[in-house]
Amino acid sequence: MSWYSFMHVFCPPHAISVRNIVVATLVGGTMMMLGSVGTHLQAEIINYAEVGRPEDPGLELLQEDPHDLIFFKKEAGGGWVKARLLDLPGREMPANPKGQLKFRINGIETKDFVAKWDEIELIDFWEKRLERETADRIKSGDFTGAYPFLSVLIRDYPNRPNLRTLRSEYLLRDALSRFKKGEIGPALAMLEELHRYAPEYKSDSVISGIGLTTDRLMQRLMEEQKLELAQQLLARLEKDYRGQNLASIKKWNQTFLEMAQERQDAAIAALEAEDFRTARRLSRESIHLKPSIPNGQELVRKIDQIYPLVNVGVLQTAKNPDPTRLDNWAARRAGRLLYRVLFEMQGAGPEGGEYEFLFGETEQSADRQEFKMLLQPEKLESPLDRINGFLVADRLAERVDPGSPVYFSPWAAAIKAIGLDGPKEIDCLLRRPNVLPSALIQMTVDGSWFGGEPGSPTGDYRRDVVEGDVVRYTLVGKQRTATQPREIVEIRTESAADGVAKLLKGEVDVLDQLFPADAVRLESNRKFRVAKYPLPSVHMLVPCSDHAYLAERAFRRALVYGTNREDILSGELLEGLEVPGCRVLSGPFPAGLEQNDPLGYAYDQSIAPRRYEPRLAKLLITMNANTLESQAKRKKEAVPELKPIRLAHPPENLSRSACEAIKSQWELLDLEIELVELPVGMAFPEPGTADLAYVAAAVWEPIIDARRVLGPNGMAGSTDQLVGLGLRRLEESRNWKDARDRLLDLHYIVHHELPIIPLWQLVDSYAYNRNLLGVGSDVVSLYQNAEKWRLSQ
Questions:
Q1: pLDDT, tens digit, for every residue of 778-789?
Q2: Closest listed residue to residue 252, CA positions, set 280, 224, 220
Q3: Is 597 exposed, middle or buried (0-12, 13-18, 19+ CB in 10 A)?
Q4: What's the first-to-final CA gap in the chain, in angstroms?
């Protein structure tokens, strides 16, 4: 019986009844196309036929099970069949076949069929058909259609002898097609993939194509002012195609050399005209364009020697520089350039901060009730050498006078008497033992101390020019050293990422503040040094209006429960990276950078931050609303309206990202939130412009800063009785044990009363080019050693 005689028994080719279809389906399991003809159905069996050839299914071929097509001779009855893949040597038809071929038809899994070899006209093998489909589509330019066929060949038949050529031809022709369409990037990617995959395939044409494509891509990058990307591409081409005579490499190397030479010539002209700023910029642009330009480094070094200038990338420029500001990073940073402080914090020790007396040295008695200042004007430079004990004593006395603008209540409460033992020794008698009196008198020393105008600078630098996002600070008087920067230029960046880009390009030498994730990534770059500030910043939300609901503790507690602080910190700010020391807080003081860190002496580790519980937050909001309604009815007053909450933040992307995330979470509590971006240089909103302020505070000395944060005249302006009691008890501490215990008590009070909403602490970092020396690795403020900075090429 021939192969199709069997089929006649079960499924004859003429019209058949429904019963025949069911029988054929049950026996053969074939796919059928059905159509009505009177009371009968006409069926077309697509897995075999007695005549003709199968239709071309196109891409749908890949939806069928793999099969070989067997075609039968006319004298044997003709027709064809889709057979399961045949197990033949080399997957080829035998040269002189004899006997029979055993096969199974797709869809008829339970029956074996046989046919004599002399009845078989041709076998179209599955993989050859895939190759043919792929080649035909490549030839016609249908690369989208060719791709899936080629993918199946690569996956299932990786050792086919023709596959390497087929794949290479696909890559070459598709690259050419894309190039003609203007898709330069994809075209280059395909050509480079071909060069890596089969370097022997039409190598001259491929290299020529890569050269033409990269030339076009370089031209486009230059037109779009993407110089950095163009240089990166050129550097990669030089590395990947060394010795292969790629035309675009030679052309663009010459182009960059000409551009670099043009800037170098302009830099030399600016130097001769004593326009040092322009000369510095152009000389650096020159070596950035072509690092190997002759005399490039020498020119940069010469200009730096004549006019040392350092560019600093900052997230915010300062509006009113003040080295003692608690809540304004930019003001505190820039203030160090313009002013000196009577007692300047140099770092942190096991018992609070370590302070340096500007005019000499200090001594404290064993009972901690006498504090001496010993002036040494002979060791100081002008105008500091003109100071005397009488003037300093007067300034200390002003800090005790409630009518004075520099009055500071903790100092007034601590001091009993101020005396002089000659012009160089000041004795301060304290009412009770004080653990850190130097922290109480961090006073800005301005020009009025030396007969000048109040508020006039006393530091090495003066603010010279403010041009948009650029602020120049120029050195006054003689350089302390030959290498001290004549100018420090602050350049405000759009974001932390923009700052990193400017550092990599050489547009800035220093970055003042990094996103924690950027700091981790930059640490691997050998051209730059990344260092951490020794003291973390404490981030919090500070109420700053008479918003009726924010005045309620229950409502503030609802905001805490409604803020997923851990998620914002780890996801938005740290970008999923683990950064030691960065953590969510339960109070207003830093928690230290590690376990048992003395920096965290004010933080109670046993008080865990409140968890994110939005349901509880909504319940507290409802309860608070009911309480306010009851109070209003009792007083026969109108119920306070829940107005939108205005959340203010500084104009930089770390604070902005955090506040946008907080806004989204609070809106889930059915609260209306308005974000208010502060003007450049401001860190705290003007009265009446916001209800909450996002503050990154330098709470470096909690024993003193507690009142500056929480007191009635502090940031929070708290009049809470428990908070006030906690502050007074803290200021009455006689020793470090008392101070620490009372700080822990204050932490507990703040955790429950919530005069501020604690968020998290961040370990802040700075980065600088290794060519800049003298910056220091343990500085509290970036400009702490600015007079020692020097550039080295």
A1: 888 999 999 889
A2: 220
A3: middle
A4: 93
Question: By residue range, what is the domain housing residue 496?
Answer: 460-533+766-791
Structure tokens at 55: 């239709």
**Residue tagged 């809470």 (tokens):** 720
Report the distance separating Cα 279 and Cα 277, nearest Å.
5
624 near 554, Cβ under 8 Å?
A: yes
CA distances, 709 to each of 211, 232, 726 (Å): 63, 48, 13
Residue 491: give its domain's CATH number: 3.40.190.10
Indicate the pTM of the whole model.
0.72
- 706 CB-contact burial (10 Å; exposed 0-12 / middle 13-18 / buried 19+): buried
- The answer to whether 124 and 130 are in contact (CB under 8 A) is no
Instruction: Answer yes or no: is 455 within a domain.
Output: no
Instruction: Report the run of H or E that residue 697 belongs to, with start and end.
Output: strand 692-697
pLDDT of 559-588, one tens digit each? 999 999 999 999 989 888 888 889 999 999
Identify the bridge partners of residue 538 per DSSP, sorted by sequence position: 697, 761
How many structural domains comprise the chain? 6
- Which phi and psi angles does 312 have, rounded to 5°? -120, 125
* Separation in Å, CA 712 to CA 420, 687, 702, 719: 33, 15, 16, 6
Contacts of 234 (CB under 8 A, 6+ apart): 218, 249, 252, 253, 256
Taking CA atoms, 224 is separated from 213, 221, 233, 316, 424, in Å, by 17, 5, 14, 28, 65
Q: Is the bond preceding residue 383 a cis peptide, omega within 30 degrees?
A: yes
Could you read off the pLDDT of 161-186 as tens digits, one per residue? 989 999 999 999 999 999 999 999 99
